[in-house]
Amino acid sequence: MTPLELYTKTKNDLSFADFMEHLSEVTIPKSKKLQDRENKFRLRVMDFKDKYHTDLLVRFIGYWTERTYGGKQMLFETQKAFEISRRLATWASKDFNKRPEGKKVELL
């Protein structure tokens, strides 16, 4: 439903501009389930698949969705500021995906 449809349906005394201002103040509660928050984070990161390699995004997600000691939060949720686009740019520029030279990784 569009905001205009919602406005006409409610038939209140507010002007449409005041209604839109009120509508923007309404907050949507955060999902309390850890898995829901992780899935939302994954989707937001994968929006950058056109700009960054999928392997880089998967490793980025793996790092930032690590659980805290209590298991109630993920690492990205503990940061004071976390803007995915900036974090990804830094991640890509520092090449955190690079493996140390001379060391082979054996898969089990």
Notes on the structure:
By secondary structure, this protein is mostly helical. It folds into two domains: 1-29, no CATH class; 34-94. 49% of the residues lie in helices and 0% in strands. It has five helices and no strands. It has helices at 3-10, 16-25, 34-46, 54-64, 84-94. The termini are far apart.
Short description:
It contains five helices and no strands. It has helices at 3-10, 16-25, 34-46, 54-64, 84-94.
Name the overall outline: elongated
Percent of residues in beta strands?
under 5%
Structural class given helices, strands, pairing?
mainly alpha
Order of helices and strands: HHHHH
Determine the mean pLDDT. Answer: 77
User: How many independent structural domains?
Assistant: 2
The oligomeric state of the chains shown is single chain
Number of strands: 0
Low-confidence stretches: 24-29
- Rounded to the nearest angstrom, the distance between the terminal CA atoms is 51 Å
Tally the helices: what do you get?
Answer: 5
Short key terms for the protein model shown above:
108 residues; mainly alpha
SSE blueprint and pairings:
Blueprint: H1 3-10, H2 16-25, H3 34-46, H4 54-64, H5 84-94
Helix pairs in contact: 3-4
